[in-house]
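Office hours follow-up: a student asked to see two folded examples consecutively, so here they are.
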Amino acid sequence: MAIIFDECHRSQFGENHDAIKTFFPKAQLFGFTGTPIFEENSTYKKIDGTVGSYRTTKDVFQQELHAYTITNAIDDGNVLRFHIDYFKPEDDKKAAKVSSKEYKQAVVEAILSKHDAATYNRRYNALFATSSINDAIEYFELFKTLQEELKNSGDEKFYPLNIACVFSPPAEGNKDVKQLQEDLVQEKADNEQEPDKKKAALKAIIDDYNAQFGTNHSISEFDLYYQDVQKRIKDQQYPNADYPHKNKIDITIVVDMLLTGFDSKYLNTLYVDKNLKQHGLIQAFSRTNRVLNPTKPYGNIIDFRGLENEVDDAIKLFSGTESSEKVKEIWLVDPAPAVVKKLDNAVAELEKFMISHGLECKPEEVSNLKGDIARAEFIDKFKEIQRLKTQLDQYTDIKEDQTAIIEKLLPEDTLRAFRGAYIETAQRLKAQAGQGYCE
């Protein structure tokens, strides 16, 4: 008998693993994980007599059969790179003096201002990782309050985000919740303090959810609520014309849940107000980097905790190499100024190409290109421009002067017209290829 465990970095360090080995003494056990537990990131104590040591993935599964690191996966294009916006208030001294509530309000205001850009105008959705159940509750209430204020302000451009919140309830002897909380260290600890208060808050959150989405969930059947939240996050895949936005979730506030093992290709953003490190950091970030199509160029991370050193340490630990600077180039996208420069070069290449064919670099001149080879070359050159522009559109830390440069390089009306010419040209070539025709 062979037993295969996925996500074995978290699922096979408790009592269940020992119970499985005892019950199936002759079974061969295999574990898969993108973030192994090494001595550097182990928090699981193994006691041998009076000696305490850290328990690693190698201790649990013994021989390593094969290593294919996240660096390999990113380099091969099997998962996306990351863009990290280390959010810093403009006035650091003032920020240091604000109260917890003022700080949280500033975070919510930042999220509301950045969300459309981060998610490509809500084509994708996001998780918001908070440091405790109490913080998650407070953030949920703040989103309600601030969005209601914006809605009542008469701002016609404001369209409210659908906010959900999920954390486990106090176990109270419930075996299913107890088993669930084996992997939810922070939530398990939080629920030991003022459990009745946590339970009442979760009940109110579920009631809001029911009112918003027309469901009938209850805290007594928490798992059904949790499954529905996951489904609605994944429902982002459907266009609003097929499945209205009112049925979807824009941001899900979490503590431990959904930060490991949960996959949705249409989730591209993680907001972080939680101290993360090592495997916990990489697992949380990796909720955002599933490959989809060119409109999702990377996983978007907006960090409110200043985790730059923790990111560097985690990349080094899980890269499988000592060349940390080279690895960072693989893991992280270029900063905005570098991409703006690449866009400048790409636009210059298009201008050079059009001039070489005796044409001005204008959208209306594309139809005058002669020959399929020239048309195909135009498609390649504009595709690169569009790729870089899509990447920049989703940068949440882009500066006003950089935006001005982009607009000067390629005004929105010109870009839209070129995109129309690009689509028309591509369709023409495709139709001719289907007919077996070539000029």
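And the second, which I mentioned at the end of office hours:
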Amino acid sequence: MNKMQNFEKPTIIHLVLNKEWGGGEQYVYDLCRHLQQEGYPVWVVSRPVPAVIQRLESLHARLITLPLRGVPDVWSAWALARLLREAHNPVIHVHNFKAAFIAVFARTLSGRPARIVVSRHLVRKGKTGWLYRYLYKQVDRIIFVSRLAQRQFLSTRPKIETSKLTVVYNSIIPIPTAAPDSPLRTQFGIAPETPILMYHGRLAEEKGLRVLLKAVAQLQDVPYVLMLIGCGDAAFENTLQHDIATLHLQDKVHLLGFHANVYPLIHQCDIGLVPSIVAESISLASLEYMSQGKPIVATNNGGQVEIIANQRNGILVPPHDPTAMAQAIRTLLLHPDMRHSMGTQSLHDFQQQHSYAVFYQQIKKVYFQ
């Protein structure tokens, strides 16, 4: 695409505030990459955080560092206003309301029209004070990553036009799965007929891992191996190790640590586990298991109920209930045909409803309506 064609497209500007790389930053990265592939000029404004900047530099987009301190940060608003005067029909996509205030002030200072889109990644109640009433009036659209996130936001009845609200489920871009150097079955001496259970994500109390360990401790009469992938606070990891020893699970449960690319590991598992005991807005882990055609056992207290259909592509259980989780896992362990059919349905549902192509088209509608 030549430079003139590129310039005539609207400029997409992302504001990134977090102090570390996480799911929100990956969301921005993947979206920027797809926009670039279609010839859209992409600018990214980030706090000067080396770990974040280093990853964003690989986009080869225009990268600007600003303090981005929220409501009182007049300097960032003024600097962003200068950028808006250079941009062609800009769309500003921000990923929390602190950044939205800066975007609104910058648009006013620039004297230029710009569309402001906010993604709401968390499950939190909407604020109702006068400052937020002003903000809701100024932004053009708010994207919620699940219906749960939207319901929780609206539970306080914030004063906002409902036509500005939309739900666009997050998605992921599966990395092509290459054959691992040391397959899990070879590495841990797992028999071909022994199912592999898997959890991947942060090792933290709210992820329900202690409940999960109590659940699998009830399955000593059936063959399985559980892999826990990820890292967390050292104290909590020590707690998990203590629980594993106390429940006599040393031969059944293995902690594999952090892996940048989990897809080769997910590809080797038989059942994906999402045992969170808090209501999360959306479960990226669930989408990752679905993209690899795996059945899922998950708790029914968060956005995962919107992508996992009980008894169709997985089994949903109450949080804090190790017995219910154990029963669900046992059902899949004892019925390989059910595992296969649910896994096939998982992959189909991901491709039809939650693929990145579906997500990307919906985001572009929000940008350019």
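Two things to take away from it. The radius of gyration is 22 Å. The longest strand covers residues 115-120.
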